[in-house]
Write a structure and sequence with these properties.
This protein has two helices and no strands. The chain has about 55 residues and is an all-alpha fold. It is elongated, with a radius of gyration of 12 Å.
């Protein structure tokens, strides 16, 4: 599924907040990466984020 830039921002922001609040990380993160936004971005690119977008048609 293709996401708009607004949907990407919302998904990555929500996941970064979850990570910063102590949620488990769903992928193996490269060493040295500690920023929740970077971790969320890596998860998003790998397709591991369990967040979906509901669109009205």
């Amino acid at each position: 599924m293709r996401y708009t830039r607004f949907e990407k921002a919302r998904i990555i922001g929500a996941r970064a907040l979850q990570i910063s609040m102590g949620s488990p990380i769903l992928i193996n993160v490269p060493s040295g990466v500690v920023d929740p936004i970077e971790i969320a971005w890596i998860e998003f690119n790998s397709g591991a984020i369990p967040i979906t977008v509901k669109r009205e048609s």
